[in-house]
């Protein structure tokens, strides 16, 4: 239906071709297996419902159906986050203040762990670039 949707939005006829469909690719069966077996962490499912784009671009019924479908394929524990501990954050000093870092960088993360991950993956290297200048 993308040709119809895009044609309406762009107010010009759009023709979609099936030459590049994922289902015709070599990875199609692997992707299908992944989507059938992947469990969404419930924390992410809850978080996505607060996103402006989710709220704005979905009807009430679409939101309800999305949540209902993904709750069936969700898990309470985020296995990735369960494996993370403070010793893994090699660039964070003892006096790191996650609230200050959150405010300075205008982050909307809810918890200290998300903020530490951001600093470790982004903030520390930005700091190095600033120091080099």
User: What is the beta-strand fraction?
Assistant: under 5%
Number of strands: 2
Strand order of the largest sheet: 1-2
SS-derived structural category: mainly alpha
Please give the alpha-carbon distance between the first and last residues: 50 Å
User: What number of structural domains do the residues give?
Assistant: 2
Low-confidence segments, given as residue ranges, are none
Return the average pLDDT rounded to an integer: 81
Estimate the global geometry from the Cα principal axes: elongated
Helix count, per DSSP?
8
- The gyration radius over C-alpha positions equals 21 Å
Estimate the helix proportion, in percent.
55-70%
- Helix and strand sequence: HHEHHHEHHH
Please outline the major beta sheet: 2 strands, parallel
Question: How would you summarize the topology of this molecule?
Answer:
Blueprint: H1 2-10, H2 28-37, E1 40-41, H3 42-48, H4 52-57, H5 60-72, E2 74-75, H6 79-82, H7 98-104, H8 112-132
Parallel strand pairs: 1-2
Helix pairs in contact: 7-8
Q: What is the compact description of this entry?
A:
This protein is mostly helical and 133 residues long.
Report on this structure.
This protein folds into 2 domains: 45 residues; 49 residues, no CATH class. 58% of the residues lie in helices and 3% in strands. It has 8 helices and 2 strands. The longest helix has 21 residues. The radius of gyration is 21 Å and the shape is elongated. The mean pLDDT is 81.
């Amino acid at each position: 239906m993308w040709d119809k949707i895009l044609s309406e939005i762009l107010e010009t006829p759009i023709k979609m071709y099936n030459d590049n469909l994922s289902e015709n690719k070599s990875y199609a069966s692997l992707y299908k297996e992944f989507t059938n077996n992947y469990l969404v962490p419930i924390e992410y499912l809850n978080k996505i419902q607060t996103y402006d784009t989710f709220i704005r671009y979905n009807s009430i019924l679409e939101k309800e159906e999305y949540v209902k479908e993904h709750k069936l394929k969700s898990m309470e524990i985020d296995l990735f986050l369960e494996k993370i501990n403070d010793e893994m954050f090699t660039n964070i000093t003892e006096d790191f203040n996650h609230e200050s870092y959150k405010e300075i960088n205008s982050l909307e993360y809810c918890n200290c762990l998300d903020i530490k991950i951001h600093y470790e993956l982004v903030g520390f290297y930005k700091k190095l670039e600033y120091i080099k200048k």
